[in-house]
Amino acid sequence: MKKKISARQKSEFLWGWIFILPTMIGLIVLNIYPMINTIVQSFYKTGDFGKGNVFVGLKNYEKVLGDSEVWQALWNTIKYAIVEVPISVVIALLLAVLLNKKLKGRSVFRTIFFLPMVVAPAAIAMVWKWLYNSNFGLINNVFNIKVNWISNPAISIYSIALIGIWSVLGYNMVLFLAGLQEVPRDYYEAAEIDGANGFDKLVHITVPLISPTIFFVIVTRIIGAMQVFDLIYMMIDLNNPAWKKTESLVFLFYKYSFEQSKKGYGATVVVVLLVVILILTVIQLIGQKKWVHYE
Q: What is the pLDDT of residues 184-235, one digit of tens each?
């Protein structure tokens, strides 16, 4: 016999859909549709004035695989991520552990470290351009050195990665602080009775118990680092000798799609980036089974 649905159940069902509908519409319009459209566009060659696109099949992908500029941009992006992600995660974790203790002015320090997250990217670029300036920059003058932080192709990508570390430190720290609130104090008290020092407690108690938070931060930071664009766009000029050594895949997409009106080829670059991010995420999802502890 078919169960009759009550008026209350109908009302709850209706209001449930009403509440989630705006989010679903936003997700479809702003995320899912653009992603599908980008994948479709990668199989086309952009027509004149953005009209009359011609279907070219896999030719864009064949061209990407043989494009040295794309490979260089991918390598630049990977180098940025290799520097930014692990250093920002480790420093943020240590800061979170420190600021989770009862310290005088703890709230002030938390606010100071989080401030870079709310500062406009343009303001960040302006300040760091001054700090990195080879002639009158603060860093060179304080340490009495002569380093071309931004114009030297050998170190420019690492200089930008340093800005990225500084920018995301506060956000990572807040996430770790949230994870640390769930760790029972009993574990630390028992470890202290057994004679464990601060490092032992960090390695054997803190890290295992907040490993789900650490995993979340690492995954999101790798995705964010692989999509780096604004820092490079604002820090590196087109006449900069280090330009080719700092160009990221997202910047390459911007250049092809909006500066050269090659939207089909630009879409192909983005799809390649999407595949790389998916592969990295899958590897992390497989590897997390060995070190992430869900309780």
A: 888 888 888 888 888 888 888 889 999 999 999 999 999 999 999 988 988 8
The Cα-based distances of 115 to 46, 80, 95, 119, 244 in angstroms read: 42, 22, 15, 7, 31
Q: Write b or e for each residue in 111-138: b if 16 or more Cβ atoms lie within 10 A of its Cβ, otherwise e.
A: eebeebeeeeeeebbeebeebbbeeebe
The structural domains of the chain, with segments of one domain joined by +, span: 1-41, 58-290
User: Model's pTM, two decimal places?
Assistant: 0.88
3-state secondary structure of 55: strand
CA 25/CA 44 separation, integer angstroms: 27
Spatial CA neighbour of 74 closest among 285, 275, 242, 233? 275
Exposure class string for 199-220: b at 16+ Cβ within 10 A, else e: eebeeebbeebbbebbbebbbe
- Residues 6+ positions from 152 with CB-CB distance below 8 Å: 242
Q: Does domain 58-290 have CATH number 1.10.3720.10?
A: yes
Angstrom CA distances, 271 to 32, 39, 99, stand at 14, 6, 40
139: part of which helix (H) or strand (E)? helix 138-142
Q: How far apart are CA 275 and CA 290, in angstroms?
A: 24
Query: Which pair of structure tokens corresponds to residue 156?
Result: 């420019």
> Residues 111, 112, 114, CA angle at the centre, nearest 5°?
65
Helix/strand/coil for 264? helix
